[in-house]
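Task: sequence design from structure.
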């Protein structure tokens, strides 16, 4: 078993287990523990600025969710409208929806046609490549036969 020796006092930082504020680091996720102390401080300041004033820094996630949902229910529903455009009727909305569905359907149809054409082109190319392979094999046999004939004549 290895013997543990006391830390060398001449080495700077020897004997220290963690920098100041280490208990805070233990509560943070590994991602939050990485980086410089200055960066961690900046992150915590940004996070505290995002929190509502009524929520304490030690509030749990459920506390935060509860406060935001109650805030949402209190805020009035807002709808953006352009000043010059009248509100749309149900007929115009339905007409717009039908046109959109028609455009999507025609896009799907043209895509299907394109895919079918590509499939046929690929099949034609595969057939041509198979024919070329057969031609190459035939030529290789002819060349081998010619080489044999040339050797026999010598």
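Answer:
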């Amino acid at each position: 078993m290895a013997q543990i020796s006391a830390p060398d006092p001449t080495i700077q930082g020897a004997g220290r287990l963690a920098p100041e504020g280490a208990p805070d680091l233990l509560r943070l996720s590994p991602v939050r523990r990485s980086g410089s102390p200055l960066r961690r401080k900046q992150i915590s300041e940004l996070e505290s600025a995002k929190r509502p004033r009524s929520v304490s820094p030690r509030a749990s996630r459920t506390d935060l969710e509860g406060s935001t949902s109650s805030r949402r229910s209190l805020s009035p529903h807002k709808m953006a409208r352009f000043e010059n455009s009248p509100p749309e009727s149900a007929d115009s909305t339905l007409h717009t929806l039908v046109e959109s569905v028609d455009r999507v359907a025609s896009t799907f149809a043209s895509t299907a046609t394109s895919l079918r054409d590509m499939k046929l082109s690929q099949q034609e190319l595969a057939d041509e490549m198979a024919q070329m392979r057969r031609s190459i094999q035939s030529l290789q046999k002819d060349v081998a036969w010619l080489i044999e004939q040339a050797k026999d004549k010598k």
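The mean pLDDT is 74.
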